[in-house]
Design a protein that fits this description.
Elements lengths: L2 H26 L6 E3 L2 E3 L8 E5 L2 E6 L2 E6 L3 H8 L26 H25 L8 E3 L4 E6 L2 E6 L9 E6 L17 E4 L6 H16 L2
Helix pairs in contact: 1-2, 1-3, 3-4
Length: 222
């Protein structure tokens, strides 16, 4: 297992949840999702016109044509640089990462680039999937902060690109039917939540799209 990639993913997840998503929720009252962007992830435009982004091992504040960046050191320092309050303001459901504002963040630039590329590949495949399976109203892929995964839902099935998690540490694609995998013993369904495919088996956007379509077709069978 690539420990550097896992460590980087965990650090970026913390900042994404406790700085970027936290800022968006405080600014809007309810919206928390993020978007892939060149080099990492970002908020949509906030009500004040700013965009907060993670680019490699830095946090960036984008406003109009101006851009400020700072190296990621701690969650608290990142929040202070962005001018926001650290810590995800949850009510019913706790965040996916611990709030450790002063714990040093370990972010490897190469690993951060690998994760950004994975989100970009997943975003392209998911957008094509949405156009093909739901052309009337294609949903937009979004990064959900509690899992730090990029996903969308079509016909009660979640399709996504995860950067890894506690159960599957390295990046993977997944197909997750709301009702879990269908009965019958089909080896495609290799997880409790449905099916997953490691990033090492996904050489291209086309391969990712093929996996998603494979899952959709299997679910459509009687």
């Amino acid at each position: 297992m690539d420990e550097t990639l896992v460590t980087t993913r965990r650090a970026l997840h913390q900042v994404a949840e406790h700085v970027l998503s936290a800022a968006r929720k405080r600014a809007t009252g309810h919206e928390i999702t993020l978007r892939p962007s060149p080099g990492g992830v970002r908020t949509p435009s906030l009500p004040d016109g700013r965009i907060l982004a993670l680019i490699g091992d830095e946090i960036a504040v984008l406003e109009g044509r101006s851009e400020r960046r700072a190296r990621l050191r701690t969650v608290r320092a990142a929040a202070e640089f962005a001018g926001v309050e650290p810590g995800f303001p949850w009510t019913k459901h706790p965040p996916g990462t611990d709030f450790e504002p002063d714990r040093p963040l370990q972010v490897d630039v190469t690993s951060a680039r690998t994760l950004a590329d994975w989100f970009a590949l997943g975003d392209a495949a998911l957008r094509t999937l949405a156009d093909e399976l739901a052309p009337a109203a294609p949903p937009e892929p979004q990064i959900f902060p509690e899992h730090f995964d990029l996903a969308l839902t079509i016909a009660e099935v979640n399709y996504g690109a995860s950067p890894g998690d506690d159960a599957i540490p390295l990046p993977y694609l997944y197909v997750g039917p709301f009702g879990g995998p269908p009965a019958g013993g089909d080896p495609f369904w290799n997880a409790d939540f449905g099916a997953y495919l490691p990033a090492g088996d996904v050489p291209s956007e086309q391969a990712a799209l093929a996996f998603f379509h494979d899952g959709a077709k299997r679910l459509a069978r009687p």
